[in-house]
Amino acid sequence: MDSATAREQALDAAEKLFYGRGIQSVGMDDIRGASGVSLKRLYQLFPAKEQLVEAYLERRDVRWRGQLAAHVERQADPERRILTVFDWLEEWFGETDFRGCAWINSYGELGARSERVADQVRAHKRAFHDYLASLVAGAGLPETLTGQLFLLAEGAMVTAGITGSTRPAAQAREAVRSLLAAR
Amino acid sequence: MDSATAREQALDAAEKLFYGRGIQSVGMDDIRGASGVSLKRLYQLFPAKEQLVEAYLERRDVRWRGQLAAHVERQADPERRILTVFDWLEEWFGETDFRGCAWINSYGELGARSERVADQVRAHKRAFHDYLASLVAGAGLPETLTGQLFLLAEGAMVTAGITGSTRPAAQAREAVRSLLAAR
DNA sequence: ACGGTAGGAGAACGCTCGTTCTCAAGTCAA
DNA sequence: TTGACTTGAGAACGAGCGTTCTCCTACCGT
Q1: Burial class of residue A123, CB neighbours in 10 A (0-12, 13-18, 19+)
Q2: Per-residue pLDDT tens over the stretch B90-136
Q3: pLDDT tens digits, residue range B24-74?
Q4: Is any atom of strand C within 7 angstroms of residue B7's beta carbon?
Q5: A44, A87, A174, B156: which has the fewest C-beta neighbours closer than 10 Å?
Q6: What fold does the segment set B53-181 form as a domain?
Q7: What are phi and psi of B166, to 5 degrees?
Q8: Where in chain B is the domain with CATH 1.10.10?
Q9: Is the predicted pLDDT of residue B2 greater than 90, yes or no?
Q10: Tell me, in Å, how far CA of B47 is from C1' of C3?
C-alpha cells in the first residue's frame, strides 16, 4: 500500500469515527483498526493526533462546500438558488449517519483547548457565510440578508443534530421565503 | 461547612470550569481545587463525575430560563416581548466569560457517548422552544413562527459562541422584525 | 480526659490512550 | 545469497484522570 492510499484510508476511517463518535472518544488504535493502516504508518503520515484531526476537518470542509455548491449550481434562477441551499441541508439531515455539523461539534469538544481547531471552525463558517453572501449578491438582494440566512442555516444544523429531525430545514426555508417576500 | 453549602460551592466551581474549558478537560481534582470541597466530600455529594455534570446542566437550565423569563416579563407588549428575547441574548453574548451555549457545547462533547447528557440537552432546547411558543401564542401570532424564532436564536447562540461577537443577536433580531412585519 | 466519628489532604490504584520501541518478516539491490 | 532497509504487529511506556484508600487531625458526647 503506497503512502497516498494509506493516507486516504486513514482519513476515511478518521472521518467516519470522529464524526460519528466524537473526536476525544476515538483513539489512534481505533483508527488503525478501522483503516488497516499500522500505527507506525499513521504516525509517519500524521505526527500527532491533532494533525489527523486537522486533516479530517480540512478534507471534510472541501467536500462539504463542494457538494453544496454543486447542488446549488443546478439551479439557474438566482433567488431559487438561495432556497436550494436549504433543500440540500434537508437532504443532508436525512442521511442515516447524520449527527449534526462536524464543525459545531468539534468546536464544542475542542474549541476551548485547541486554537488550531477553533481557527479551522471559524474559517469553515466564514467560508460558508461568504458563499451565502455571493448568492445574495448574485440575486441582487441586500447584503443584510446574508447574516440572517446564515443564522437560519446554523440554527437548522444545530437543531437537526440535537433532535435528529430533518424538519428544521423546512422551517428555515419557510423563514427564508418570508424574508425574501418581505423585500 | 455543611452539606448544602458544599454542594453549592462544588456546583459553582463545576459550572465555571465545565462551561469555560469544556467538561472532559476538567478533572475532579480541578473541581476540588476551585471549590475547596475535598474529593471525599465531592464523591459523597456526587457519586460519579457524570452526576456532577448532570447537576451542573440542570441548575444552569433553571437559572438560564429564569433569567430570560425575568427579562422578558419586564415588557408588557406581547410583540415586544418576542424581540426582547434577542435583546437578552445580546446582553448574554457580551458577558466576558461567554463561550457559547452550554448545552450545544455539551452535546458536541458528550452527546454521542452519554445518553443522559443528550436527553438533558434535548429537554433544555424543548423547554426553550416551548417558552418561545408561549410568547408567540400570547401575541396572537401563528404557531409556525415559533420554529423560525427558535432557529434564529439557536443560530445566533452558536455563531456568537464561535466568533465571540455579539452581532448575531442584532442580526437575528432584525430577521425577527421582518418576519413579524410580514404578517 | 477519652473513645468514636467525621472530615480533609493527598497518596495510591487501575484504566485509557497518545506515542514510541522491539523484533521479526519481507523487499530489493548488488 | 546477503545485507541494508522498510514495514507491520503489538508490547511497552508515561501521562492524565476517575475513583478509592490511608492516615491523621478535630470535634463530639459522656
Answers
A1: middle
A2: 999 999 999 999 999 999 999 999 999 999 999 999 999 999 999 99
A3: 999 999 999 999 999 999 999 999 999 999 999 999 999 999 999 999 999
A4: no
A5: A44
A6: Tetracycline Repressor; domain 2 (1.10.357)
A7: -90, -5
A8: 1-47
A9: no
A10: 30
Contact list in B for residue A152 (CB cut-off 8 A) is 148, 151-152, 155, 175
| Cβ-Cβ contacts under 8 Å for B41 (sequence gap 6 or more) | B6, B10
CB atoms within 10 A of CB B73: 10
pLDDT for A2: 83
Closest CA to B107 of A149, A151, A157: A157
Q: What's the CATH number of domain B1-47, 1.10.3470, 2.60.120, 3.30.1300, 1.10.10?
A: 1.10.10
| The predicted structure's pLDDT at residue A89 | 98
Using CA atoms of B108, B112, B117, B122 in order, give the dihedral in degrees to the nearest 10. Answer: 70
Closest CA to A35 of A25, A47, A45, A48: A45
DSSP structural state of residue B29:
H
B160 grid coordinates: 456568537
Residues in B closer than 8 angstroms to A174, CB to CB, are: 144, 148
Which residue has the closest alpha carbon to C20 C1'?
A40
Q: Which residue has the cell 463545576?
A: B14
Asked whether the beta carbons of residue B152 and residue A151 sit closer than 8 angstroms, the reply is yes
B22-26 long-range Cβ contacts below 8 angstroms, 24+ apart: B22/A108, B22/A109, B22/A110, B22/A111, B22/A112, B22/A113, B22/B105, B22/B109, B23/B53, B23/B106, B23/B109, B23/B110, B24/A24, B24/A109, B24/B109, B24/B110, B25/A112, B25/A113
| C1' (D3) to CA (B81) span, angstroms | 83
CB-contacted nucleotides of strand D (7 Å): 7-11, 16-22
- Strand C reaches within 7 A of the B40 CB: yes
User: Taking the CA of residue B1 as centre, how many other CA atoms within 13 Å lie in the half-sphere pointing to its CB?
Assistant: 13
Domain with CATH 1.10.357.10 in chain B: 53-181
